[in-house]
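Can anyone check this?
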Amino acid sequence: MVVRPLPSRRSSVPRPLDPPAYDRRRAWLILVMVVVFMMINYADKSVLGLAAVPLMDELAIDKSTYGLISSSFYVLFSVSGLVVGLLSARWSTRTMLLVMAALWAVAQLPALVATVPALVAGRLLLGAAEGPAASMSMHTLYGWFPPGRRGMPSALQIGGAALGTAVAAPVLTWFIVNLGWRSAFIALALTSAAWCLVWYVVGKDGPHSGAADEAAPAHAAAPAHTPAPDASRSGERDGARSGVEASTPPLSRLLRSGTVVGSVLSAFGSHWALAISSAWLPVYLQTQLDLTASTASVALSAVSVLSLLLLLTVPALVDRRKRRGRAGRAADGLAQGAAVLVSGAALALLPLAEQRAAQLVLVAVAFAAHAVAIPLHYVTAAAVVPAARRGAVFGVVAATGTLPGMFVPYLTGHLVDGAASEATGYSIAFLLSAAVMAVCGAVAMLVIRPERDARALGGEG
């Protein structure tokens, strides 16, 4: 009797897939678009501060009211960032970025009415549309860049913010001085609309997105010769999908990890400084350091250039350490925590400085060094989170980390209005900010442990 071998079923058994290929050219094209996206994003944020002095004079409003207008930007900012982050697994990042930029253009138009309610309405809409911008554009980048290549793209994405401020400060100030402060808002509306047209043509989701990562194994498991799946195979795929979901830690557990908590705190401290910078630094330079609007715009550009230089060096060094197998606490937690601490220390010393040169140096350090924490807190959070949960975690981190913007501009204006003098009010606001940033930076340095948490949570490492 001849024993015939059973037919091979190898084709129906899922096999491990090779990582998606790294398309360098396409990835860097997307990176360029994201950098421009972030440049527009931060120009939108900074335009109100740049126009603050003539705006307050024309509308005859005090600093508390201006601070309220500035803080209104963040009322829906965190909420929209959280909601979009939680729903990001169902939506194309290409579409999300397109819709956001289109809303930015619309949100500039209420400024033309030039009343306090109209300005508040415009900032509310702008904040809602910009809330998910940083996290979802970072999520878009991570769909194109694999682990180990994300530090520099992350830095460039955040660098787009610094570059946006560096370019926007002199350009928008020229519009404000020569054509009136409303012209700056019109210019930004047109710029956002132009970006939308280009992104509609070149934008695309990447192979390393969470959706792609989940879909690939199911596709590979289907036999190539089978024209259509039968009920049993459909059930097998449903079971496999359920297994993937079951093996992924719940969102609550991911958010409780020390690395994610530390990342939120470093972001919180960094955005505290950013909230003061975007709303009050142009006003402070003009009213307290007696700089003209044009000179103040040059100083703001210098701060942004320093921030950009730090963003291009520190995260690159962190990436290099990781590629050499020396990743960990020193590469991640200490770097971002120290950045927030240094900014806080400079902010605490600023009220004590008397010479103009020393004041400008402290302003540069206080409002530039903290930026290093922003890309690194995304990198560390991504390292401990499975790709399928990355968008949701990024949304939560962004929503909680950016909370200072909701109250810091108003609080600063209230302190300045309520103090014996404007100089005293700014001193109180800066010292309070320095204390908060010191706590955030120190705790972040202690609790961020990417390698440990990645092993426990099944992150990419």
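Reply from J.R.: I decoded it. The CA atoms of residues 73 and 124 lie 5 Å apart.
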